[in-house]
Prior knowledge:
Distance between the termini: 19 Å
Order of helices and strands: EHEEEEHHHEHEEEE
Low-confidence stretches: none
Structural class: alpha+beta
Shape: globular
Amino acid sequence: MWQTLSETERNLIAARIDSQDPFNKYGAHAGEICEVDLSFYPGARLLRVSNITPAVGSRYFIQRGDDLVALHRLPEVQSFCDSHFGVVPDSKTALDYFRFAHYFSDEGLRTSLVEGPQDLRIDPSSSSPEKRQAIAFINPPEVRSDKAGFTVTVCTFDERQSRLYCDRYRLSPGQPLQLLSRKDSGINLGNPFHDRQLRIGRSDFLL
């Protein structure tokens, strides 16, 4: 899970960011900087750089040794990083690899992962018919592996359409994430809160 950098390390990272991109001043305007290990890219860590102005949003970087890559500059984040950092996916890291790939994909711009009712702040004891239907519809992610990659079945939520889906994706190292199929739940949840942050290493989604 995410860990906040010490003030000393935060300042060093901020300086590195601005030395690579002095125009945008993401380092100088950085608020909190957090890190999480990327076990599928051995030795690499993901950095989330918040802005002192919350409305600006966060920027993400991957660091390994002296290498610092700004993800917002990449047209295809996951496929580039697979090649650049050398992806080593396995059954233990596959779900985090998928979370990363989805978050930085075109689908991740439109939908967020829903791994349990809590991601939409649905109380398991709710008596609302719509929320009871959503609880029955939402299942933990299912990952199936083969020699060429992974097939992932997972629920997603489209905030703009206020739609809850069950999606099936294909994730192959070096290739952009592919949406294979989508089932609309047909449930009207209105505009529930949903947590869009990237949750590498999470373990709280079990129903």
